[in-house]
Amino acid sequence: MKKIWCKLLILVCCVMGLMTMGTMNSHAASVHHTLNYFHYNTYKDDDGRNWVRIEMGMNKDKLEYEAGQHPDKPHQLLLRLKDTDRGEVKKSIGLDRKIARYMNLKNDRRDLVVAIGVTDSLDEHEYKVYTAEADKKARKPYRLIIEIAEDRGQTNTVTEEELLEGIDGRTVVVDPGHGGTDTGAIGPSYVREKDITLKISLEVARILQANGVNVFMTRTTDVDVYGPEATDTQELQARVNVARRHPEADIFVSIHCNAFTNPSARGTGTYYYGHSSRDSLLAQSIQDEMVAATGLYDRGINSARFYVLRNSWIPATLVETAFISNPYEEKLLDSAEMQHTMALAICRGIRNYFHSMG
Ligand SMILES: [Zn+2]
Q1: Count of CB atoms within 10 A of residue 47's CB?
Q2: What is the rounded CA–CA span in Å between residue 35 and residue 81?
Q3: How far is the CA of 183 from the centre of ligand 1 (A)?
Q4: Does the CA dihedral 222-227-229-235 come out positive or negative?
Q5: Ligand 1 centre from 29 Cα, in Å?
Q6: Residue 28 has what pLDDT?
Q7: How far, in Å, from the CA of 284 to the mean position of ligand 1?
Q8: CA 196, 199, 205, 207 torsion: positive or negative?
Q9: How far is CA 186 from CA 230, 245, 286, in A?
Q10: Is 197 exposed, middle or buried (0-12, 13-18, 19+ CB in 10 A)?
Q11: If you measure from the C-alpha of residue 82 to the centroid of ligand 1, how many angstroms do you get, rounded to a whole number?
């Protein structure tokens, strides 16, 4: 009896195995297009108008796609690529930030849905979507091409959500943590703190400037502020000095990612030294907006003896945006959309601080 049961069981398993393999195969065969190439650049047309050109290459031609906008989302261009898989292309890609901010790719059943965030609401004649045949000479596969034009006459505009009233004429020093030979903390997937802090800081600067704020940055590229051979103190003092060179500066905001040996440590925290109550007010204003915008765990504000805070002549704060050592938060920090969300939250915190200072 036992033997027969055993054989039956093996037979059932085999049949089920074959069945699942069968469905898997048919699913794999049904995905017709897989992305294998991504590139974007900006160019000027004959009228002197700037465009962003995005190319998404794939393994096969004859792509079916739709492009358009959702009436509720004038700052997004949406595309649906039929029977397409994202392949190795990243889920979230940062773009030039002046015309287009980011591109998110999401599988929706068998289709791929692409959302491109634009800085100005799009009219129909402000974008083009078309396909191009494979170009062997240029080593480019069959591609879907998206071109988006800048808004005429307005070079630095804000979206409705980025509009921050009552802060024009203020002066802010933005300090992207680390840089150059100092990578800062490195996440489990090798995302580097210095890259994330720079991206968020550049976005903070863009939004503030578009709202009429004067911004000075301690660095705008991947460099050491003092120089590669500097001591820690020289490097940090060089950052403080940026504010000292600009006596009109109102506040100093340093942007970092947190890290800890235990990968489950998480959340957002903001630090101040406490020369005056304005330090903690600035920290709290930013902390509140950060937690509201990201939904990350609220570590609150804390006083700390960080060099840049202790030696600042003006109200200063240091934002630990999230834990780069936490795999989940590392992924968030690496996404262009989250970088924008955090940057906007920091700007709103800055606005609230100025408002409460009167
Ligand atoms: Zn740091």
Answers
A1: 7
A2: 10
A3: 9
A4: negative
A5: 47
A6: 44
A7: 19
A8: negative
A9: 21, 32, 24
A10: buried
A11: 43
What is the pLDDT confidence band of residue 156, given thresholds at 50, 70 and 90? low
What's the mean pLDDT when you consider all of the chain?
A: 88
How much distance in Å is there from the Cα of 324 to the middle of ligand 1? 10
Q: What's residue 49's pLDDT?
A: 81
213 CA distance to ligand 1 centroid (A)? 25
3-state secondary structure of 11: helix
61 is written with which tokens?
């031609």
Amino acid at 297: Y
Ligand 1: centre distance to CA 334 (Å): 15
pLDDT tier, 223 (very low <50, low <70, confident <90, very high otherwise): very high
Domain-wise residue ranges, the chain: 33-149, 160-357
- Measured in angstroms, how far is the CA atom of residue 262 from the centroid of ligand 1? 17
* CA of residue 23 to ligand 1 center, whole Å: 49
CA of 131 to the centre of ligand 1 (A): 44
109: exposed, middle or buried (Cβ count in 10 Å: 0-12, 13-18, 19+): exposed
Taking a C-beta distance cutoff of 8 angstroms, is the pair 175, 308 a contact? Answer: yes
Of residues 69 and 19, more confidently modeled: 69
* Span from the CA of 219 to the centroid of ligand 1 (angstroms): 14
Note the pTM of the prediction, 2 decimals. Answer: 0.62
Is domain 33-149 classified as CATH 2.60.40.3500? Answer: yes
Q: Tell me the average pLDDT across 180-201.
A: 97
Q: Is the pLDDT of residue 119 over 80?
A: no
Residues 68-111: tens digit of each pLDDT: 888 777 778 999 999 999 998 998 888 887 888 889 999 888 99
The CATH-assigned architecture of domain 160-357 is 3-Layer(aba) Sandwich (3.40)
**85 Cα: distance to centroid of ligand 1 (angstroms):** 37
Q: What is the pLDDT of residue 30?
A: 53
SS (H, E, C) 79-121: EEECCEECCCCCCEEECCCCCEEEEEEEEECCEEEEEEEECCC
Given a cut of 50, is residue 21 above it in pLDDT? no
So what's the pLDDT on residue 16?
45
Question: What is the distance in A from the centroid of ligand 1 to the CA of 268?
Answer: 13
Percent of the chain whose pLDDT exceeds 70: 90
